[in-house]
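Quick one, tokens below:
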């Protein structure tokens, strides 16, 4: 969604930076917590949060970043409460005040949902409805977690938050290559399938139905996304398209893994493979591709394209292939090495983005 004028009551770009920093705290500690789960030696701050790897990544990082982007889009001051609440919640998680943090995540998702409904009210369309449904999924997942549900019992709700948000934003761009009426109806049907899988998550058929919805969405996006055409372009346009199309393949693979395994059994290799295929392969591919667009919109900084953008992306995919190969072959050392390489890929992405921002500033500096 395009950012509206902050003068209507939103925060100026400089004031948004602390909110983004809170999100990156979630990312850094969340990645460290994930590595600690794989047996890598991590600082105590991350190691003590090993059991909260999922909440830190989804609520602490993505929750902040998505809420911040949404607040910028609608240009209203109250909407910034969502990234602020989620960011403070992350700080509390890091300091072992998880029960209070959980309630802050609930509040953050509630504000995000209100912001999404505000957008839906202003523009009635399938993509705004899809984005609002994604926010509602985050609300439900957070509420269940706060009520005492285990992470593996709410993870599909959290993943649906990310998946539907991305699908909705890609659907918005389909106006440049409008899908047929049949394609739009199929998309609506797929939303119902995903919803049915979520509502039936406690039954044997629920998770496979959810996985079928993921398979369908990935195929729909591969077929309908304008990236199929823009990948033939050059420069940043092609890079974004490569990120998108490769991400859809990971989403497809995740759905296939869940179906083949018959569900999501916590602690199993298929659980690790399916979740990271979505959260790392699909979602972070989208992050890599959209960063050159999101950072200028949120922080008003230039992120000029450079061919080195492909290096973190290639490392991300290679690390995930190694991790999933380890899961499939029962070789934990492969999975462990893949996890570490994935963390390096994320670090490389951050370094690449910061370097691009510095290049952009240097290019605009007066002689």
């Amino acid at each position: 969604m395009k950012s509206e004028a902050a003068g209507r009551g939103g925060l100026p770009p400089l004031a948004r930076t602390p909110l983004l920093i809170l999100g990156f705290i979630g990312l850094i500690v969340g990645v460290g917590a994930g590595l600690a789960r794989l047996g890598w030696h991590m600082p105590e701050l991350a190691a003590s949060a090993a059991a909260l790897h999922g909440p830190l990544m989804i609520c602490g990082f993505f929750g902040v970043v998505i809420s911040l982007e949404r607040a910028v889009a609608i240009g209203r001051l109250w909407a910034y409460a969502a990234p602020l609440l989620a960011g403070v919640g992350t700080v509390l998680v890091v300091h072992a005040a998880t029960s209070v943090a959980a309630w802050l995540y609930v509040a953050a998702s509630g504000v995000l949902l209100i912001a999404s409904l505000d957008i839906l009210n202003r523009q009635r369309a399938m993509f705004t409805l899809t984005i609002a449904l994604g926010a509602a999924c985050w609300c439900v997942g957070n509420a269940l977690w706060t009520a005492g549900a285990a992470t593996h019992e709410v993870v599909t709700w959290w993943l649906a938050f990310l998946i539907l948000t991305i699908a909705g934003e890609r659907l918005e761009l389909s106006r440049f290559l409008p899908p047929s009426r049949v394609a739009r109806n199929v998309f609506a049907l797929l939303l119902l399938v995903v919803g049915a899988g979520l509502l039936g998550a406690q039954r044997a058929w629920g998770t496979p139905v959810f996985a079928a919805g993921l398979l369908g969405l990935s195929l729909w996006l591969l077929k309908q996304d304008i990236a199929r055409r823009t990948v033939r372009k050059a420069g940043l346009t092609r890079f974004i398209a490569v990120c998108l199309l490769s991400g859809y393949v990971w989403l497809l693979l995740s759905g296939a893994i869940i179906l083949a395994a018959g569900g999501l059994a916590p602690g199993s290799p298929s659980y690790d493979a399916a979740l990271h295929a979505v959260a790392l392969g699909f979602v972070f591919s989208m992050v890599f591709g959209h960063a050159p667009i999101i950072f200028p919109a949120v922080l008003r900084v230039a992120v000029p394209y450079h061919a080195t953008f492909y290096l973190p992306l290639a490392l991300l995919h290679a690390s995930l292939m190694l991790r999933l190969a380890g899961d499939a072959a029962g070789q934990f050392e492969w999975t462990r090495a893949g996890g570490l390489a994935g963390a390096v890929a994320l670090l490389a992405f951050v370094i690449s983005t910061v370097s691009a921002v510095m290049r952009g500033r240097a290019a605009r500096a007066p002689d």
